[in-house]
Amino acid sequence: MAEYSNQCVAWVVPDGGDATALGGLGEGATPELAMKKAQSYCENRAGNGCEVAYSACSLPEIEPI
């Protein structure tokens, strides 16, 4: 299980394809940046790309100085 704070994450999985297809996990300051990074790891020779399995942002955490 992964933990994250003060950021967004996205996990994408291959939409069809064979056993060589790869999904991806990405993080970023916004949901869009996290999705872009996750999609950059997607490899699917079937040409279907990847679909979103999970996408969320944590609540902001302010640490005292």
Description of the structure:
The chain has 65 residues and is an alpha+beta fold. The protein has one domain. It is 15% helix and 31% strand. It is built from 1 helix and 3 strands. The protein has a 3-stranded antiparallel β-sheet with strand order 2-1-3. The mean pLDDT is 88.
Please give a handful of descriptors for the protein shown.
65 residues, alpha+beta, 3-stranded antiparallel sheet, 1 helix, 3 strands
Helix content: 10-25%
Residue stretches low in confidence (pLDDT < 50, at least 5 long) are: none
Which outline best applies?
elongated
The fraction of residues assigned to DSSP E strands is: 25-35%
Radius of gyration: 14 Å
Task: Return the string of H and E elements.
Answer: EEHE
The assembly state of the depicted protein chains is single chain
Average residue pLDDT:
88
**Tally of contiguous helical segments:** 1
Q: Separation of termini? A: 29 Å
Estimated structural class: alpha+beta
Number of strands: 3
Task: Please summarize the sheet with the most strands.
Answer: 3 strands, antiparallel
The spatial strand order of the largest sheet comes to 2-1-3
- Give the count of structural domains: 1
